[in-house]
User: Fold these one by one.
Assistant:
Number 1:
Amino acid sequence: MATIKIALLGFGTVGRGVYEVIQSHQNTLYEQTDSHIEVSAVLVQHPNQQRELPEHILVTDSIEDILKTDIHIVIEAIVGENPAYPYLKQAIEKGCHVITANKAMFANHGDELNQLATEHGVKVGYEATTAGGIPIIRTLQQLRVNQVQRIEGILNGTSNYILSKMADEQLEFDDALAQAKELGYAEADPANDIEGLDAFYKLMILSDTAFSSQPDWSDVMINGIKGITLDHIKETISSGKVIKHVATIQNEDGALRASVQPMLLSPDHPLASIKGVDNAITIDTDLLGKVTLQGPGAGRYPTASALLEDLVSVVKEEVQTSVPYRLQKHLQIVKG
Ligand SMILES: NC(=O)c1ccc[n+]([C@@H]2O[C@H](COP(=O)([O-])OP(=O)(O)OC[C@H]3O[C@@H](n4cnc5c(N)ncnc54)[C@H](OP(=O)(O)O)[C@@H]3O)[C@@H](O)[C@H]2O)c1
């Protein structure tokens, strides 16, 4: 029986979830890949912390030690752009497939990683970077004849939870945020969520996937929900509307226009009824029209689900490495 060796970069909420699901779904993974999937190395920041992992798994804070071993696939779930980006570059250069959940890193460097992977004949999976378990990347990649014209989404579960609580229970912003922290839906420092940056990164990844390009970041209006008060919510309710934090991108005659901001939606808008920590994305295409996907946008098992679906696709060679924008531009220049 073939064995596929996995290195997990990060063993927090997401990394631990991936490890657990690899153990609990060993038979399904075997049926799907014809291989035994084995976690053989784990990278963490504090390797001496107690983690109850079997002795044969290398636990280290050194990426070099991990890449010296015989690894086939690297699954990355650490936080922030660095050192995740250089680590994944090194992994690709060694010939490993890479799969990531890291939106901040991938919004900044997805293009370079895709190009490098193409040069080295390996795949990059990034379904988990955007909207947790919702298979939105896969859905966009499967639309080959349709032209996507617009994408609109609730991409940050923390913001949606806070707005839902404010509207349903008439809570002040700070009280709803405190509840979100208590339940583990918001981090100790929730700035990226409530200031809109988290949704912005995800929108840029959707843009790369749907349009093979991103707008100039400085042209994108990014507003979070932190200025919204209970009075705003009450006014909105009495006008028959709903406030939602919405990330939008559309193709206007070849120019991409994007924004991330609180918006007033009519009750019949597909995103108006999305409550709590759920995410939802509406894709509008020329042939299909509007399709909305809704589901858990974060959490240990939904995110592990996206990473493991990518794992199976990578092994079956189904993951499409989208033609990077700069490469496309280069091809146009060469052609033209
Ligand atoms: N949580 C979610 O629901 C969710 C959903 C979608 C995507 N994501 C993305 O997934 C990634 C991981 O999120 P998480 O919630 O699992 O984070 P987390 O619980 O904070 O875990 C982070 C893990 O990464 C390790 N780590 C951090 N910096 C490192 C470094 N410089 N070198 C080596 N290891 C390092 C930590 O090591 P120690 O254990 O030693 O501290 C920890 O094991 C993030 O990029 C996040 O945006 C998360």
Number 2:
Amino acid sequence: MLITFCGYEEDLKIVNMRLIKTDSPRESAECLELGRGVLWRHIRQQEAVAELGMDALAFAEVPTFMDHAMERVAAILDVPYVKVLEFLPAENSFLLRAGRGWQNATVGETRISADKTVQTGYTLASGAVMVEDFGVEQRFTAPELLIKHGVVSGISVPIYSINKPYGVLGAHTDTVRRFTEYDISFLQSIANVIASVIDRKRVEATLQNSEVRLRKLAVHVEAIKEQERARIAREIHDELGQALTGLNMDVHWLAGRLAKDQTGLSDKVRSMGALIDCTIKTVQHISSELRPSVLDDLGLGAAILRVVDQFINRTGIRCDVDIAMDDAGVGHKGATAVFRIIQEALTNVTRHAQASNVSIQVKEDSGRLHVLVKDNGIGLTETDIGNANAIGLMGMKERALEIGGSLVIESGTENGTLVRLDVPLISDKA
Ligand SMILES: Nc1ncnc2c1ncn2[C@@H]1O[C@H](COP(=O)(O)OP(=O)(O)OP(=O)(O)O)[C@@H](O)[C@H]1O
Ligand SMILES: [Mg+2]
């Protein structure tokens, strides 16, 4: 039987996995049959690699993906035993991470030697390995797990994760089987897909970890800022305020002791008193900006009204306020967070919005506090919101998260900007 091969028609047979010429039509027919089988297996293997590549993106956890991959490898290679081993350098051993067919082994517990004289260790050190019969194998011994299950033949390949070996993937049979180079490439491709899933999960975990740490840091920084502000406000108010009040009293005392004809001196003392009065007001203003005492003394509602008053006086922008809440429900920490968020939202309106109107709504509903700050200005883009330099917006979100709430910024160029804050109310005053 003539086989068309690369455009030539020849009688071919397979010797040692290579095609060579033959004069026997029977050998040639066998070769064609064999070739069809090999080609068919190879196509199925390629399909399986492609499918697993897609599945790699869908599976959320590494162990479930490995189980799925083990099933596919066992089916495609038609082998009873498949395993993924993770290399544990500190113990110089492998841990069974996933497997199929093993009766005397437990995933997550069974350990296998990583010695280079054993097939597993040899694979990790030297690369893909094919064994036709462990009984006559000279390069290494079979690990105990394979001996216990009467494994005779097998292939194994290393799994390389970023910068370091992860472990070994193996497929085995308990009857003699001659695997092919195609089988090895198939298994190596699967090992690479497994490695990519492991790497992706590691990167995701690292990212998640650094996000959590960054968030904690941001919360910590905000808390320290708040404490520092309160401390400086107290110091300014108590130390500077009292000293100025004392000075003022001295100046009044001095004024009372001046003779009527010392008009030059008494004018000077009076203007000193006026300057001291003015400085006392400035000090009070600075300290209340740093930590509005009204927040502690009269509560969140009054503090919001105060900040809105200051906003209107400073900017001339119209501001409608609608507050329907019970101060006690928010707690001390919550009140500070909500107050600072509204303060930052109003500062942003002053600095960026070019708005003529702002409305603030603070309402309690179903155990939650809903806050809306809406302006009719130029709005902002998604890029503005996601910008790494938008520390003010980020701080607002972090403050909301810190008290178990959420903050969303909505904007369209025609509708201005809407800051929507949602905070759970608490029963005890934290
Ligand atoms: N109400 C708003 N209207 C229009 N643009 C806004 C508004 N609020 C914020 N932005 C835009 O979003 C950007 C980020 O705001 P963010 O508060 O994070 O920073 P900032 O106000 O520029 O500086 P700061 O760190 O002092 O707050 C602003 O630079 C501005 O471009
Ligand atoms: Mg800002």
